[in-house]
Structures are given as C-alpha cells and as structure tokens.
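Next up, sample data.

:::
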Amino acid sequence: MKIVRCMIAALVLCVPGQTAVGQGVASASNDPAEAINTAVLRLASTEKSAMSKISARRISSIARPLERRTARGVGGEGMLITRAALVAMPKAEGDAQWKCLSEALYFEARGESVKGQVAVAEVILNRVASPKFPNTVCRVVNQGTGRKFACQFTYTCDGYPEIIRNKKAHELVGKIARLMLDGAPRTLSGGATFYHTTAVNPRWARKFRRTAQHGVHLFYARS
C-alpha cells in the first residue's frame, strides 16, 4: 500500500487521489476560507482511514530511516543504538550467555562510551564465531581463568571479587548485551578478536593488525 505524506503548509494540501488546494479542489462555495476548511476536514478523514489500515510494525519501519538520519547512534543498516534509546528500553533479561556478556561489558568497559561498549561486545562475539576460540560467550569470557597470566579478560583473574556496585551502568550494558546477542550489526571493531587499553603495550599487539580505537581501547585482528 502506498503511503502519501500530507502536509498543511502555505495553503498547500495533498490528499490521495486529489489535487492540492489552489490547484482545483472542488468546493460548493466561492469563499476561499470555506474551501480550505472543507479540504482540511476531508484530509483528516482520509488520513485517519488510511492510517488505520497500516500496522504498527509498518509504521515503525517507515520511521526508522528518519531516525537514523536525525540521531547519532551506533549500528549498521537497519539498526540504531544510542544512549537515549538504551535508557528508554525496558530492562533486559536473558540466559547464562547474556549474563556472561553483561558482566564482561560491565567490568571491562562500563566507563566507555556506548560505541566502546558495543565494540568490546563485538570482540567477544567475534571470538564465539571463530573456530580458534571457544564457542559460547561464557567459555570465551572465562577462557584461561585460574591460570596465571593465561586469562583472556583481566577482571576474571585480577584477584578482586566481581561485585556490581553501579546498578545503572550494569542495566545499560545489559541492554547492549541483549541487542548484540539478538543480532545487532558488528560494525565498530573492524572484525577484531583482541583489544587492550592504552595503559599497556602487550607484545602480541605488534603482530596483529589494529582495526579501531574507541576511548581507551585499541582493537586488533589477526593479520
């Protein structure tokens, strides 16, 4: 079904199947004001009838391209993640894999921007998808935990208990984890499967190709 956008501006009205006011809309009166009022009422009735036949899903799909043009967000084609959008989302829930990803984002990147947090989530999910790493989020996050200098994510072996004190930050990264697990585009890390902060300079980073930087995190992929 074609959707015709109608605007009332400068005495120009468009109605499906009719010409604009000033271009031949029929009226039984010679009074311009009455002709305009008649056209406005007809427009409102026609628009209401047309909109009632469009599903909420279709309306959402039409509005989404406009949102992408007017909001600064994170994501690829058909996807938008902004801090405002995350705050507006209901609290996220999930299984053990969601919990592991939420925890990793909280302890590894809660101080980063939304872009930085999404990029860290991408690294974890890129590892899950790679045959060179474990095949679940929890196994990726906990790979090497308990072995000295072998853990892949520092918070799992830094000797400090994993206590979540900032509930708002944890709720926010939980929403990011939900979106990423549900298939949000991975467009920010450049396909990275490694990252480190700018506070360190690991030897392995010299062998890999740097793909991105978000905040204090540098991202790498195998060459």
